[in-house]
Every structure is written in C-alpha cells, then in structure tokens.
Design the sequence.
C-alpha cells in the first residue's frame, strides 16, 4: 500500500442519494454536535453512498477504510518507513483524516481485529484525540473532523458482534432498503433503465427478500438491482442480466438458484 | 462382456448351455431347443447378457429363469440393456416378496413395465420439486402455503396439493415446468380470490356439477392468466403455452372480459352461466381441479381464528399506546389503504398511524386475501382478559407443589404487571430414561455420507491455523514488524520486541448449551428429527472440541417444571449420553422462561470467552394449564433471554415452526434464530447452523 500518495481530497460533484427518512438531518446534527456516527444496515442499501453524499454536503474530504481481519492499529494510525538513508513517519488514514479535519469512514468495522477497534475509542468520545504511541503524540481532532463507521447487524456469527463499549460511543442511524417507488427511482437514475423494467426489478427484489430466512441470508440489495439494471441498459437480455447480477450473486445453492431463477422468469 | 465383433453363439452351443442351466424344469415336451433358436440371431453381447441373468435368476428359481429366457428376445426388442436390468430386478424383487406366480406375471407385463420405465425416466416427481416449489411460492408471497402430494392438483387455500408424479410430457424438464405452472396457478387462485365467493351456489343451475366445476376451473384459468400477465408476464406466458387446445368460439368470445385485470371470480361465474349447459371446455394440464368444499372449510376456520387473533392483537396494541381511550375501544382503529402498494395498509389508532407488529401485518394481509378488505368489526379490539382463557385451575394442583429437596425456585415475568412473580416456578432436574443403544449407530449409518462431510468440514474449522503476527516468539520473523521496528530504531526509538510470526490453532474457547424442546407437540417424527439432529451435533462438536452440554425441558404448570440433563459440560460423550439422546421423548408443555433461567445459571458457571445458548424448538412457549401462553409466555421467555444476554450469553433459536417469523424476532432478536422448515432436514441443518454461528 502506497500510503504517502493517497491524497485527502474533496468530493466535487454531488453524489446521487435519495433520503429514505431523516438520516440527512440526523447526520448533520451529529456532525455539528461532534458526535461519531454508526451506520447500521444490510449490505448494498446505500451506506457508502450516503457517506459520500454527506461528505459532499458538509464540504469535508472523505477517507474510507475497508476493514479486514489483518488490519492493525499501525495501519490506521501510521508507521515509520525506511527510505534510502533515513526514516520517515507516514500517517495512516485515520491520522491523516484527523489532521485534515476530514470525515473518516471505517467500513464494516466488525471485520477489524478487536484490539484495533480500541484505538478509535478516545477519538469517539468527548476527548476527541488520537493517541500516536510511536510518535509520543496526542493528535487532537479539529472541530471539522468526524468519525463514522458501518456495521451489518444481519451477521449471525457471535464472533462478529460489536462490543458495547464501542457501539455505545456512537449515534446510530439505521438503514434499510428503500420503499418500492423510491427504489425504482434509484435504479432508473443509477442505471438509466426505463421505468417499466426498473419496476420489475423492484418486484423481483421483494420476492427475493421474502426468501430471507428460508435459505437466503439476504435478499437482493439495491446495489444488485442497479447492477442488473446497468447490464440491461447495455442491451443484455433481462433474464440473463438477473441471472448473473442477482441470482448467482445471492446464492450458490442449486435449489435456491433454481427458485430465484424461476422468480426471474416469472417477472420477465 | 465380449466385444461387439465377437461371433454370436450358435444354436447348438446355446442349447447346451441352456439345457445345463434349466435342466430341472425341462421335459420332453419343453426343451431348450426353441429357446436357443430364438436367441441365436442376437448379437453376442446380448446373448451373454441373457445367459448371465438367467444363471443369476436360476439360483433362486429355475422356472423364472426359463420364462426369462423365453421372453428375452421380445424384451430386448423393447428395452435397452439398462431397462432389461431394471425389468429383471423388479421381477426378482416380486419373487422374493410374493413368490413365483406374481413374479412371472411381472415378467410378462413387458409393455406395462416399458410404459412405467418411460415415465420414471421422463416424469417429474413431487418429492424432487417440492423444496424448490416451496421456495418459489414463498417468493411469490401472499399467504404462506404448504405443499402436499395428492391425487389431483387443487388447493384448499392453505395447502397446495400437487400430483405425486407428472408424466404428461415426454421430457422431465417439461414435466417439472408443468409442476411449477400448476403450483403458481393454485397460488394465483388464493391470491386473486377464486374462493372468496360461495362457488357451490355460483355454479347452481349451470348443469351437472362436475362439468360446471371443470368449466369454471378453465374460465378461472383464463381470468388468472390475465391477472398474471400484468405482474408476472414471464410466468403468464409459460402458462399460456400450456393450453394445447384453444377455447371453443363461444367461450373464446368471453376471453377479453375475463382477461381484464379488473375481472373477479364473479365475472368467471357470469361467463359460466352465459355458456349454458352441454358444453365441456378443454381441461388444460396445469389447471387442476376446484374443490370448493375443502376451500370453504379451511377458509371459514381460518377467518374465524384470524378475526379472533386480530382483535386480541389490536386490543393489546390499544393498551400499549399511551393515550387512554376516551370512547369505546371498538371505534379506535381504522385502516387506510396505501393505493400505491396495492396490498399494504396503514393502521390508524385514534387517527394516528401506528406500526403494527410483523404478525399483525401478516394477519391483515391474509384477511384481505380472503375478504378483499378488512371488515370494520374485525377492527373492534377485543375486551380485556381475552387471553386469560386458561383459568387458574391447574394452580390448585398441589400434589406436586414444592417437590423434592433439589427443587429450585425461579422468578417469572408477568408482562401485565410489569414485574416478576417471585419464586413462581418450581424446577427439578430429572433423569432421562435410557433409550435404545442402537439409535446413535443407526443414525450415523443413515447419514453416513453426510457424517463424513460434516466431520471434514468441522475438522477444517478446528484445524484452521492462524498466523499470529507481532508475537514475542515464534516460528518465523515477521518481516513487516521487523521493518517497522528497524524504522523505529533509526528514528531513535527502542527496538520493538514483537517481531515474530507464530502459527497457532485458533483457541475457540467456546461453551455451548443446547436446550431441547421435549414438549408433547414434538411427538412423532419431530422428536426423531430432534434426536437425530443431536447425534449429528455431537459428532460435529466432538470433532471440533467445543465444550457443550445438552438439556431437555418440559413441564406442566409452574409447580412442575422439569429439566432433563442429557449431557453435562464435564461429561464425556459416553455410551450413557448416547442412550439418553435416544431416550429423549415428548412429554408435556413448553414453559421456556424457567428453563432458560436455569440453563443460564449453569452456563454462567462455565469459564469460556463465548457462551452460547441454543434452543431447539417446535413452536411458541406454551403451558396449557396455567395461562403460560400467547403474550404471557412470549414476554416471559423474552425477559429470560434478556437476563441471559445481560450475563454475556448469546441466545439463539433453531425452530421448525413456520410461524416463527411472527414471534421469534421479538424474543431472540432479528437475527438470532433460524428456521428449518423441512423437519426431515433438521439433522443435516443444525450442525451447519452451528458452524455458521461460530465462525
């Protein structure tokens, strides 16, 4: 990872986002109140897009970190690198966003190691500083800085649960798939698909969501619908598009694939 | 087997071989010569095939072997070798079971066999498509429909009945597709109100009942085809392709009216009347039959119970809402139809929208399917005390009160009071009677391939080496750490110490408690499935090395709550444990709260990083005799689970109750449960669910 070249940049064009409820007001209030935010919701319902939109709206740069189970505290805070004849300190994404007064978005925080999550604790309460042990420095966050993270409560694993001490530091905003009309509008906008086909995609999505718990871990997300819509808008036959972008993406199980494919055939 | 270019045996050679083999049943009038002559023109491979099988059959019955050889040339003309083999094996089966004469009749019924063989090769069977169709119908949504095999295709509005086997088309694929269209058509009947009028009255005066019903079924198929064309065009087109004969002109003229998406079952009845008598419309293969009696019976029963449940639910909602009733409670609810979404409603209480629980939404939807709307009287909330149906009669049952010395007392949550009832339940541990020692072995044999797979999967879990980074000591140098430490050193800091990589088995450090429903409702195959599931689980957990315990629970009234240790944490998976698993049997009722509290206490005493309490259940908490049911039971169970969570225990529920969606999320939380809706698959699924839960 070439950390040094990653710039902290502002988002120039407005990212498309359709509010579902009062999440924009809530987020803005949290931002001005200097409170960190936790976005809860299933995959592909628009959490990341919402972050981009809010960063644009608040005119702050956005730094996104996708968490994984090898993510160490140094990966977030920073480390010394050896160059030709000297050592240079390089900030990690979290330190960089604190310095720049950016919005730092930790995506899928439960995937990160438990000991890593702890470094954000002082940042996430009213102390608002980032301890940089190696530098012997306490980095105080400017008022513009904001910490946000996302979390999918749909995981059944008991090992992927967020600790109370972490979650209780955050203002939580819950996300879900948008209602049918809104979802159709989003698909039309994102994929350029005509309204008739977009409405069918929404109907298909509802059908797959009916199957949640009966063999599917999740129904089709808005993101999958947009993918299918994009394929269709480029001339792929609707059934093939749904087969590739939705059915196969949802499951590997043969019987379930058959059922989802039949639902696709029923709608298209 | 000889190669194909080998010369066939001569009639003489054949005769010698056959004479030797069939000698006991040959005589001067029944010789091998005509048999040999008939076999002689066949290719060598076929000759050897016949001789091989004749020898095999002769070992059981020489007479049957004789008949086989006599029929062989004819059979070979009809069947391929694989078919021949199936034919012979079937005849041998019949011989073993019923003796010579039925077996020889079976052999002689070559044509019949050929037909059924064609059917098995090209037909589709209910059991092969049932799971898949279940998922398909669930996806289409509406009311939950069960699937059952039956002689004909029809629905009683709660269950979709489909034939055991469909052999209508020459290919299996087409037959499976026909199954799908059938199921979807029957679903459409329930979804678009075929049974929402009195069909018997509707067809009166339209000639003979059977004909009228058949004609109505066809007209309804036309109408539903129109409905489906709007929302599910792909499906509608497939169904349309399954109409081999067109309607006669008089009926065809009615098509535009019926296909109008606004048309209802009344239009179909009107069309039936206008047809007059003496006409029989084509019976399309996917349409099935109409069974108004069954539908009316099921529908009436459901409407009664749903009306009652809805009113009870609403009165509860009304009680929960803060604003006290000013007028009579009846007039407080109103429904507004969300025109956009079609089937969806907004429930208004005193003019303000309220969010109904999932169960209520489901109910409303089901009622609308039956009646097309929610009649006002349904919205009159029932008076107080509607769930106090079980009187406190069983309370007086003092015989078991405060039993033996080892009895333990537990509180119970009364949601109406918002308080615990102190020391309310008397719980005793009891012994499970030993069951058949062979049960575990038999189960392992039954699922042998799956057990192997299970062990492999769980071994993979256990053996998952994890590379630990930045360790004080280890097998290899952690280059990342070293470079970083070097950089720190150059920057003037102390050299870090954690520079090694170490491979280590992940320490799962997990303790899991299984709480098994032993209530009377598990009687029969549910109990079998539960026990088999436990065997599979033990197999998995032994492989994995997680600490686990199994306890059964049951009871009758608060004074006789019982818990049955099957395996304690410290106990090994011994012969006794196996016999106790075999001995788990259905007993009384499901008082869950007290069992959860007791097991929580046991589980909290175990030192482990992660503690899991997994319930295997078949339905709602329910103790018939002292009112532990409905809301009371659910709320107490929920409270017990909250207590468990407070102690750092993760509760999870595996259920086979299809209604679970209505109450389990409330008790266990949105994701802490799993539904296995096919009981037969419980043994295979439970271990899988456990694996997903703990990785």
Sequence:
């Amino acid at each position: 990872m070439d950390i040094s070249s990653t710039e902290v940049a502002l988002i120039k064009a407005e990212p498309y986002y359709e509010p579902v409820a009062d999440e924009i007001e809530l987020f803005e209030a949290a931002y001005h109140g200097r409170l960190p935010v936790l976005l809860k919701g299933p995959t592909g319902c628009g959490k990341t897009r919402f972050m981009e939109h809010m960063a644009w709206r608040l005119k702050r740069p956005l730094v996104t970190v996708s968490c994984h189970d090898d993510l160490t505290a140094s990966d977030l805070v920073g480390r010394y690198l050896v160059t030709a004849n000297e050592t240079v300190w390089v900030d990690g994404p979290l330190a960089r966003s604190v310095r720049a007064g950016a919005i730092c978005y930790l995506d899928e925080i439960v995937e990160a190691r438990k000991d890593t999550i702890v470094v954000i604790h002082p940042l996430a309460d009213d102390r608002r500083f980032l301890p940089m042990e190696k530098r012997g420095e306490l980095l105080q966050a400017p008022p513009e800085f904001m910490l946000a993270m996302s979390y999918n409560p749909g995981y059944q694993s008991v090992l992927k649960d967020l600790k109370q001490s972490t979650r209780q530091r955050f203002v939580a905003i819950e996300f879900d798939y948008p209602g049918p009309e809104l979802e159709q509008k989003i698909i039309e906008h994102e994929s350029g698909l005509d309204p008739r086909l977009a409405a069918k995609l929404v109907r298909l999505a509802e059908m797959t969501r009916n199957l949640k718990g009966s063999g599917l871990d999740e129904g089709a997300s808005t993101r999958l619908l947009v993918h299918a819509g994009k394929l269709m808008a480029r001339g792929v036959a609707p059934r093939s598009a749904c087969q590739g972008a939705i059915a196969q993406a949802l499951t590997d199980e043969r019987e379930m694939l058959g059922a989802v494919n039949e639902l696709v055939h029923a709608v298209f | 087997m000889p190669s194909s270019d080998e010369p066939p045996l001569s009639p003489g050679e054949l005769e010698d071989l056959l004479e030797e083999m069939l000698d006991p049943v040959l005589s001067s009038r029944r010789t091998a010569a005509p048999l040999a002559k008939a076999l002689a023109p066949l290719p060598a491979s076929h000759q050897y095939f016949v001789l091989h099988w004749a020898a095999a059959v002769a070992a059981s019955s020489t007479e049957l072997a004789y008949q086989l050889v006599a029929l062989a040339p004819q059979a070979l003309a009809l069947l391929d070798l694989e078919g021949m083999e199936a034919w012979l094996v079937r005849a041998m089966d019949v011989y073993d079971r019923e003796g010579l004469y039925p077996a020889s009749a079976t052999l002689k019924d070559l044509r019949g066999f050929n037909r059924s063989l064609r059917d098995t090769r090209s037909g589709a069977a209910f059991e092969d498509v049932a799971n898949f169709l279940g998922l398909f119908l669930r996806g289409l949504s509406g009311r939950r429909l069960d699937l059952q095999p039956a002689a004909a295709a029809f629905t009683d509005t709660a269950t979709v009945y489909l034939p055991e086997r469909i052999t209508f088309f020459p290919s299996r694929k087409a037959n499976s597709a026909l199954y799908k269209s059938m199921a979807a058509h029957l679903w459409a009947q329930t979804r678009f109100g075929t049974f929402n009028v009195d069909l018997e009255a509707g067809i009166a005066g339209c000639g003979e009942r059977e004909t009228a019903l058949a004609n109505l079924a066809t007209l309804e198929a036309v109408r539903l085809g129109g409905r489906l064309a709007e929302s599910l065009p792909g499906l509608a087109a497939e169904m349309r392709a399954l109409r081999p004969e067109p309607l006669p002109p008089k009926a065809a003229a009615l098509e535009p009216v019926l296909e109008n998406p606004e048309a209802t079952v009344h239009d179909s009845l009107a069309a039936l009347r206008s047809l007059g008598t003496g006409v029989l419309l084509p019976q399309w293969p996917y349409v099935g039959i109409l069974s108004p009696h069954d539908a009316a019976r099921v529908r009436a029963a459901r409407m009664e119970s749903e009306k009652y449940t809805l009113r009870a639910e609403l009165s509860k909602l009304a009680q929960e809402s803060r604003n006290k009733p000013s007028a009579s409670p009846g007039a407080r609810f109103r429904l507004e139809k969300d025109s956009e979404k079609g089937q969806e409603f907004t429930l208004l209480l005193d003019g303000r929208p309220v969010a109904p629980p999932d169960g209520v939404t489901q109910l409303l939807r089901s009622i609308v399917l039956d009646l097309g709307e929610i009649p006002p009287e349904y919205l009159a909330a029932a008076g107080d005390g509607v769930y106090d149906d079980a009187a406190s009669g069983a309370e007086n049952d003092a015989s078991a009160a405060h039993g033996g010395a080892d009895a333990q007392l537990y509180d119970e949550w009364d949601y109406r009071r918002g308080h615990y009832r102190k020391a309310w339940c008397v719980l005793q541990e009891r012994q499970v009677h030993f069951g058949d020692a062979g049960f575990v072995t038999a189960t392992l044999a039954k699922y042998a391939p799956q057990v192997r797979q299970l062990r492999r999967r769980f071994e993979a879990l256990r053996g998952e080496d994890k590379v630990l980074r930045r360790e004080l000591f280890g097998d290899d140098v952690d280059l990342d750490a070293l470079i970083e430490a070097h950089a720190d050193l150059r920057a003037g800091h102390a050299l870090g110490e954690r520079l090694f990589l170490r491979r280590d088995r992940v320490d799962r450090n997990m303790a899991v408690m299984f709480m098994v429903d032993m209530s009377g409702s598990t009687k029969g195959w549910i109990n079998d499935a539960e026990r088999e599931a436990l065997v599979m689980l033990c197999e998995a957990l032994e492989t994995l090395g997680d600490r686990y315990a199994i306890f059964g629970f049951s009871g009758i009234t608060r004074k006789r709550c019982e818990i049955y240790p099957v395996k304690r944490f410290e106990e090994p998976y011994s012969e006794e444990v196996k016999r106790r698993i075999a001995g788990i049997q259905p007993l009384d009722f499901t008082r869950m709260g007290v069992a959860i509290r007791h097991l929580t206490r046991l589980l909290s005493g175990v030192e482990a990083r992660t503690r899991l309490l997994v319930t295997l259940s078949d339905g709602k908490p329910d103790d018939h005799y002292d009112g532990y049911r409905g809301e009371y039971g659910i709320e107490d169970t929920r409270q017990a689970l909250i207590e468990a969570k407070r102690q750092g225990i993760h509760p999870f529920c595996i259920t086979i109750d299809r209604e679970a969606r209505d109450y389990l999320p409330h008790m266990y939380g949105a994701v802490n449960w799993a539904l296995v809706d096919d009981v037969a698959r419980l043994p295979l699924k439970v271990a899988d669910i456990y694996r997903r839960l703990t990785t």
